[in-house]
């Protein structure tokens, strides 16, 4: 069981612009956990700490707790819930079925939604339009779930009265969503077509812990511009 005053025992290796880092920062803030953030600079060689902490993928994001590394954002969020289960709020449902549904939609966000958003962000021409359409379709599926799924319908957040696992998984992407829309001059979440999802996103982004963790969406535009201007590299 984790104890109080662990800033020196909890470290987070990441990049502030990463939506996956945002997820973990929100979870840590909700649980009131102090930690040391170690910014990784991709312009420099990977640090010994990063390579030691994630020898398989050799990349961020990594949470280090008492010297033990945990990788992958939503695995880290679930670890935070279990390691600090005595701290409110509960980030995961207590009911086994509700927990399974939450994990299903988290997997949908990571396996379906984010890849199409990323492809749209870096796409051009017909490819860009195609990925925007795929992304919108994915968001419409989430809108439908908010309308019809008993686990979510009529509740302010996916987690109920408080934000939970799905809120963190999807909401952690909110600055990136805005960044993609601005960078590609597209609309991914239409308030008229997706009123429930749009209202949820507004509520989520008004939370203080979310505001503090979110990067400026304009920074994504700069990243896209730089990537588009970079010459292709051979393998």
From TrEMBL:
GO terms for cellular component: cytoplasm. InterPro entries: Glutathione-S-Trfase_C-like, Glutathione-S-Trfase_C_sf, Glutathione_S-Trfase, Glutathione_S-Trfase_N, GST_C, GST_C_Tau, Omega/Tau-like, Thioredoxin-like_sf. GO terms for molecular function: glutathione transferase activity. PROSITE patterns: GST_CTER, GST_NTER. Belongs to the GST superfamily. Tau family. PANTHER family: GLUTATHIONE S-TRANSFERASE U19, GLUTATHIONE S-TRANSFERASE, GST, SUPERFAMILY, GST DOMAIN CONTAINING. This is glutathione transferase. It comes from Pinus densata.
């Amino acid at each position: 069981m984790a104890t109080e005053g662990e800033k020196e025992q909890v470290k987070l290796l990441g990049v502030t612009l990463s939506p996956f880092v945002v997820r973990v920062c929100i979870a840590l803030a909700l649980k009131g956990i102090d930690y040391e953030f170690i910014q990784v600079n991709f312009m420099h060689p990977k640090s010994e700490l990063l390579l030691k902490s994630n020898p398989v993928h050799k990349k961020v994001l990594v949470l280090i707790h008492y010297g033990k590394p945990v990788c992958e954002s939503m695995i880290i969020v679930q670890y935070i819930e279990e390691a600090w289960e005595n701290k409110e709020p509960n980030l995961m449902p207590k009911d086994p079925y509700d927990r399974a549904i939450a994990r299903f939609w988290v997997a949908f966000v990571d396996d379906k939604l984010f890849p199409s958003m990323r492809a749209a962000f870096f796409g051009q021409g017909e490819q860009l339009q195609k990925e925007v359409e795929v992304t919108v379709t994915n968001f419409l599926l989430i809108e439908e779930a908010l309308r019809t799924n008993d686990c979510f319908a009529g509740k302010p957040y996916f987690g109920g009265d408080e934000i939970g696992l799905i809120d963190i998984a999807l909401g952690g992407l909110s600055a990136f969503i805005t960044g993609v829309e601005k960078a590609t001059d597209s609309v991914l979440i239409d308030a008229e077509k997706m009123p429930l999802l749009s209202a949820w996103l507004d509520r989520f982004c008004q939370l203080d812990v979310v505001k503090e963790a979110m990067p400026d969406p304009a920074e994504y535009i700069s990243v896209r511009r730089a990537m588009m201007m970079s010459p292709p590299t051979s393998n």
